[in-house]
Write a structure and sequence with these properties.
The protein is an alpha+beta fold. The protein folds into two domains: 3-77, Winged helix-like DNA-binding domain superfamily/Winged helix DNA-binding domain (Arc Repressor Mutant, subunit A, Orthogonal Bundle), CATH 1.10.10; 92-239, Arc Repressor Mutant, subunit A, CATH 1.10.10. It contains ten helices and seven strands. The protein has helices spanning 8-21, 28-34, 40-56, 79-91, 96-108, 113-120, 125-133, 156-162, 177-180, 206-216, and strands at residues 61-66, 69-74, 111-112, 137-143, 150-154, 223-228, 234-239. The strands form two sheets. Strands 3-5-4-6-7 form a five-stranded antiparallel sheet. Residues 1-5, 176-209 and 211-244 have low confidence and may be disordered.
């Protein structure tokens, strides 16, 4: 980076950005290496200026000097709000069993509870109930077989939870090969944990989920699904299983 390309304002923005993205306290020398042409005293001056702005501006962030470097932290004034947020977020975290069930529904929808259990080999009543309560899945209709069991599909909340524009953004099952070899992706935060590479921020038991999803990728004939219309009357529609 050339000093001719940055004025004082841009240097200030660059230093602020570096502090924001760094997971550990940044040493002045580290910042100096990133910002060529800026000497250590000037960097310290910029940081102290930012520090004063944050402290005097009723901001939610602070800059503190620790372990020989500088880092950006949240303001003590926000502690109660953050505690409530993390508690709420942790309550939304899904178990491995829920994630594996959700993965099957995402790829095989519309799918019945018995279909899910035949793949997982365990009862999923409780897991399905949890996913319904979290609005990650929905009852999409009934299958036109004896007993007319409910079929399940994912919701808009599912897309939002995992950062998908549509179900077309689901990764192909062949992408799971590295995961089956034991490859893990380190979590970047504590948000959604669906074990599907390419659209999740964290991973949990990826190898098991990959094998499970591979089992679910088998050809099936089209199913006749009876969906309820807005008047409560059944309306038959042919629904082909999505193939990856």
């Amino acid at each position: 980076m050339s000093s001719e390309l940055l004025d004082d304002f841009n240097y200030k923005s660059a230093v602020e950005a570096l502090l924001f993205i760094s997971e550990k306290p940044l040493l002045l020398e580290q910042i100096k290496t990133a910002l060529e042409g800026l000497d250590t005293p000037k960097i310290r001056e910029i940081i102290l200026g930012l520090k004063n702005e944050y402290e005097n501006g009723s901001r939610g962030l602070r800059i503190e000097e620790v372990a020989g470097g500088f880092r950006m932290v949240t303001s003590p004034d926000t502690a109660l709000v953050l505690k409530k947020f993390y508690k709420q977020r942790d309550a939304q975290r899904l178990s491995t069993q829920a994630l594996e069930t959700l993965a099957i529904i995402a790829y095989k929808q519309p799918v019945t509870r018995l279909d899910i259990e035949s793949l997982r080999g365990v009862n999923v009543d409780g897991v399905v109930k949890t996913l319904l309560e979290k609005n990650l899945i929905r009852i999409a209709g009934k299958k036109d077989i004896i007993g007319r069991p409910f079929v399940y599909g994912t919701t808009r909340q599912f897309l939002e939870y995992f950062g998908l524009k549509s179900l077309d953004d689901l990764p192909k099952l062949e992408e799971f090969t590295p995961l089956e070899a034991g490859c893990r992706r380190q979590p970047s935060d504590a948000s959604g944990v669906l074990p599907l590479t390419g659209f999740t921020k964290t991973m949990d038991e990826p190898a098991a989920a990959a094998k499970l999803l591979s089992l679910s990728n088998r050809p099936e004939e089209n199913s006749i699904i009876i969906e309820e219309n807005k008047d409560g009357e059944p309306a038959k529609t042919e629904t082909a299983h999505r193939q990856s």
